Amino acid sequence: MAPPLPSPPPLEGRGQEATQPGHPHPSPLAGEGPAERGQEATQPPPRGSHDAIILADAHREFIAMGSAALRALGKPKSILYDVKAALPADQVDGRL
Hints:
Blueprint: E1 50-55, H1 60-71, E2 74-82, E3 94-95
Parallel strand pairs: 1-2, 2-3
């Protein structure tokens, strides 16, 4: 039997108050964003350019967009799959 994995470091002071209720991952603190890692902000993907849209995390920005705006990112016959069940079931093609 393999030894147990070590416990993750505590999340204290990592922006937990900015996350959604019950969301296990903290928001980044000031100074931890893409610019500080040498990354540039990207433009939103072009509309109608994807075969599938997979909502894998329930970020407020995605939920606020709603299923119609998310679907608009896909091609006419694309699918919208909601891994986190964040959108109403009748507005997605599949969910866990």
